[in-house]
Amino acid sequence: MSNVIKLRKGLDLPLKGQAEKKVVTEIKPDIVAIKPTDFKGLTPKLTVKEGDSVKAGSPLFADKMHPDILFTSPVSGKVEKVIRGEKRKLLAVTVKADAEQKYENFKAGNPADLSAGQIKSLLLQSGLWASLIQRPYGIVANPDTTPKAVFVSGFNTAPNAADIEFTLGDQLEFIQAGIDAIAKVSGAKVHLSLCGKSFLEGCKNVEIHRFEGKHPAGNVGIQIHHISPIRKGETVWTVSPLMLAAIGKLLLNGKLDLSRLVALTGPDIPQNCYVKGIAGMKVKELGKLLWVWKADTRFVSGDALSGTSIGEDGFLGFRDDQFTFLLEGDYNEMFGWANPIRSKQFSASHAYFSWLCPRKRYKIDTNLHGGVRAFMFNTVYTDVLPMHIFPVHLCKACMAGDIDKMEKYGIYEVLPEDLATCEFVCPSKIEWQDTISKGIDLMLKEMV
Fold first, then answer.
1. CA–CA separation, 421 vs 419, rounded Å?
2. d(Cα 134, Cα 224) in Å, to the nearest integer?
3. Hey, which end of the chain has fewer CB within 10 Å, N or C?
């Protein structure tokens, strides 16, 4: 029987708007997009041009550094637009979907009957190799490296995260095929972390670990830290159950299927529910069926703490299964924090009376409640981070661009999402995740 790792530090954000366990509709998007910005460290090279016809599984662009890593279209149709930013940086490739979907035919087979080389080739050609994240740095896994282990988080503690039991409970066969495939390709042990009872207990060919605790207990980086910390020179791979299911469908059915149940969450939308969608779907596709947008809404692909703001014309991230809708906090409060009665405000400390109502949920918006100020050194950050590192020292080292100190204080063990709770409680209003991301960019530039 697996041991239970109890994490006493962390913070569960009591945000209103958790999705009810019901699927209200299926979205068949007119436009989908694959965004190179979803993949850390990627230098994309286009393989198509506007007007080209593609199938689901056809390559749209590749990695310049590893040309065998392809990024493919989730749907069949015509390449509508190549979106570029400053200095012609490739931001997205959009595809106008066909009414009748066509798929690239990949060789289907049980992972047990395929060699590691055959499975790797299938993942690279189909675009699903991009579902494997390599730590440190959170980049797409290098096909030429051998990780010391593979880690899968079987639960999610982020605010209003999609319920894995609901979204993937009927896909154990595909998830098991995905596990078997990744275990064979990596040649390493697969570690699966669970919390409480889960249908994933039926998975084989894995070592199960159990966790208890508040967010970010569900982050795979926190789990790695407590199971087998990453040291300099070591690499591990991580993959989500959602992407394991997609890998399993590829192997057993022979086609790329990036469909998924997507949670619609947030405190100010008429209906918190699930829809059946697909990676790269446009957020505006939801508005046609469910509601009219408010002018002051922030659109997020992912959760409220570590998701990506995409705007009203944005698209669902490649690895995401959640949209979060938040109100923009562009207002000032009379007396601010000095107001002794703030019953509608949540505080991670005892500054307000929210600690007297532990089960209450709040309409939390994006207001910072103050501006950037001197970086305070206290225990407010370590109280919400269940890792044996010095977060303030690490953040300051990233600000200074001091690689030696970044290594000393744990840059190999974290991704920005692992420090999202530190950013939320930060009295100095420091953008922790952006700071850590810039530190990782520096490490990639100087050390890789």
1. 5
2. 12
3. N
